[in-house]
Design a protein that fits this description.
Layout (H helix, E strand, L loop, with lengths): L14 H5 L8 E4 L6 H7 L7 E5 L4 H9 L13 H8 L5 H10 L23 H17 L3 E3 L3 H6 L8 E4 L16 H10 L3 E6 L3 H6 L4 E8 L16 E9 L6
Parallel strand pairs: 1-2, 1-4, 2-3, 4-5
Antiparallel strand pairs: 5-7, 6-7
Length: 259
């Protein structure tokens, strides 16, 4: 199975599409905004050949580290995933198990601050205890097989600490270029784009179309994928009640190319 873990802005639904643009063979897989690792898990399950994964995320590094190092997933709860269960884990002392439980008890898997999520119960759609353990076990196998190194640094610090080679792949899913609260702390997008353009290797950037990104990345490769919005409330639905379509964009440049 290809393991996926929910999170606001995660690429669980688009990772398969993204993987089609990634070279089939490369040196290292590097993610400065790794989230819950969904793109890595897809890449590693799709026949791509690479020697190591380097994952960085200021928020989710504890989850990824626990996923890689946990000796047993027997602690995973059986349904229902209700408010009482969410509160028990939210109020627990920090531990690897607490970091892992956040991915299935918190709303959308983002954080304990988001509140409980009762969807799924005992169904076989990824919320059951059995499926959760299978997903965690499969993800652990990938992290160990790829000799994953996990850090919790600012993205720019993580990148500048690396001796990047032309055959490396840097995949970045930065916070959206909008004026709103995002899961990852806000970044200077002009600084981000300047840094991305100077990297000597393959660089892929996921995002949504904004004037800044379209102008700066106009010479890069570009592909778009329509998908339904994940927003909530009346403002995010059309007249029929269906979610409106939005376009996810993938930009990329090949090794040695600068903008």
């Amino acid at each position: 199975m290809v393991p996926t873990f929910k999170m606001h802005g995660s690429k669980a639904r688009t990772a398969a599409w993204i993987s089609g643009f990634i070279p089939r063979k490369f040196g290292r897989w590097i993610e400065p905004f790794a989230g819950r690792g969904n793109v890595l898990f897809r890449i590693a399950s799709s026949g791509h050949e690479f020697r190591q994964a380097l994952l960085n995320d200021m928020n989710t590094a504890p989850f990824l580290t626990a996923l890689r190092d946990q000796e047993s997933f027997d602690f995973v709860d059986a349904p229902p995933i209700d408010k009482a269960l969410w509160m028990r884990w939210r109020d627990a002392e920090p531990s690897p198990e607490r970091a892992l439980a956040e991915s299935y008890v918190a709303r959308f898997g983002s954080s304990y601050s988001m509140g409980p999520n009762t969807a799924g119960a005992g169904s076989k759609n990824g919320h059951s205890r059995e499926n959760t353990i299978r997903r965690m076990t499969a993800a652990q196998e990938i992290l160990r097989r790829t000799d994953a190194r996990i850090t919790a640094l600012d993205y720019s610090v993580a990148l500048r600490a690396l001796d990047l080679r032309e055959d490396d792949v840097v995949y970045m899913d930065p916070p959206y270029d909008v004026k709103q609260t995002v899961h990852y702390s806000g970044i200077d997008h002009d600084e981000f784009l300047d840094l991305a353009s100077d990297l000597p290797c393959w660089v892929f950037i996921s995002g949504y179309s904004t004037p800044r990104y379209e102008a700066f990345l106009s010479s890069w490769g570009r592909a778009a994928r329509p998908r339904a919005s994940v927003g909530k409330g009346a403002s995010s639905t059309g007249k029929t009640g269906a979610k409106p379509k939005v376009e996810e964009i993938l930009w990329w440049k090949s090794p040695g190319k600068h903008t």
